[in-house]
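Message: I would value a second opinion on how I read folds in token form. Give me a protein, with the fold worked out from its sequence. Write it directly below this note and I will take it from there.
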Amino acid sequence: MNLNSMELDAVDLQLLGVLQQDASQSNQALAQSLRLSAPTCLRRVRRLQELGLIERQVAIVDPGKLAEALGHGLQAIVEVSLDHQGSDALDAFEARAVAHGSVQQCWRVSSGPDFILVVATLDMPAYLQLTQALFTRDANVRNVKSFFSIKRAKFSTALPLPQLS
């Protein structure tokens, strides 16, 4: 089954919506909330997984609570501009960034900087290690601008879905 031939109905969209809010509920509870039989619900969820619409299911850790438990925590949004924007240069930086464990998100963007990174480190010394690994040792990195988080006002992983009747 490929994405070009897939058709999503209202039930598929409801399933995706509910799973985006809480994927930990049992198939039985999910089926009951959507007024489906458990086998039908499971079949639909598996189809959405096979189509790649459900990429993976994860636990979302609260960075504030983790920081309280560990005694520290640092999150930053980083703009990175490269000297050379050829395909090979962009691919090389992207590969290094996504391979680094502290990089939570890596976005190739235009116009302005070449990349936006969302990073989380344990503390400022760990952030310094990240900057040396990704920015200082790379002769192609022209400019880095870091914005440190002081408060997270909103965080969501849910994508907006159309409402079908």
Remarks:
- The domain at 7-50 is CATH 1.10.10.10 (Arc Repressor Mutant, subunit A).
- The chain has six helices and four strands.
- The two ends are 25 Å apart (CA to CA).
